[in-house]
Amino acid sequence: MKILHVLLCRGPFPAFKYGGTERVVWSLASAQKKQGHDVKFLMRPHEVRPEGTLLYNKKKSFNEQITDWPDIVHFHCAYNGELNKPFVCTEHANADEKKQYHRNTIFISQRHAHNHHSNCYVFNGLDWDEYAKPNFNPKSNFVHFLGKATEPHKNLKGAAYVAKKAGYKLSVLGGKRLEIGKNGYCNLDFNIQFNGMVGGDAKFNIIRQSNALLFPVRWHEPFGLAITESLFLGSPVIGTAYGSLPEIITEPEIGFLSNNYNEMINALNHVGDFNRQTCHQIARDLFNADIMANQYQLQYEKVLNGQTLNENQPYSLNTLIKLLPIT
């Protein structure tokens, strides 16, 4: 099968540090190539692009740019137009306004689909061969926060509170002590170590040595790569029960979910009760790129056979990024 992925990111691809969607799409395309498919990309111009990438021109229609090469087109954005080729769309984010989606839209967790009035979803997976080995016996005194520290719904403030109350340092991957711009801050809490937008081995080593990922998000997380990355490297997860988290943290050995800070603190005080080997095994076996590619293959085949993935158009009636409560 000839598959064209449309990903209109502005940064490098594959992503070297951050860029969750970019890493998922790269893992998906790599798995599809291993399975014998031909894969190309349509992307914005950038100095770091795979060989053979078609360069997006906003002055031209998608029909003009896609050419006659692909059997199917996979948009990694909301697309609701007409196309001369069969296509699917993966929605990677939450709607930030009243919105309708194409009937061939795929979401990335069951709750994510439900929140957009759909039943069609495929879990994100990653190519674990690109990751370091897990650590089942960390000797550190810290836990970690993985996400954009400036985003209120990621809730760095809540993670810092839980870590301090439980007697742990907090290592932040995804922010600096001083951030300027939208949602900027100056954080003078020296119980927190800020690592900036760290990636690669430096990122893996911090997660491997961490006692747990703190993930007290205050929105319905669409999926949460931070969760599966941390699990793969041996780190249990303590977070809220919003969005996809109950679909990923399905065993008591790998994490604890609550919308109450005191209960999170108590879980962190008993972090030794979690099983880091089980954390690794579940991420490795359930959230890998091969399973993701197989699930997308099923969706492609439905569309190529003339079916639509959703009986009706998925939609949101309002924003899904309002902050949710934690007691």
Automatic annotation (TrEMBL):
Gene3D superfamilies named among the record's database cross-references: Glycogen Phosphorylase B (3.40.50.2000)
Pfam families registered for this protein in UniProt: Glycos_transf_1
Source species, domain of life: Bacteria
Domain Glycosyl transferase family: start-end pairs: 132-262
InterPro entries given in the database record: Glyco_trans_1 (IPR001296)
PANTHER family given in the database record: BLL5217 PROTEIN (PTHR12526:SF595), GLYCOSYLTRANSFERASE (PTHR12526)
Protein name: Glycosyltransferase family 4 protein
Naturally occurring in which organism (per UniProt): Shewanella subflava
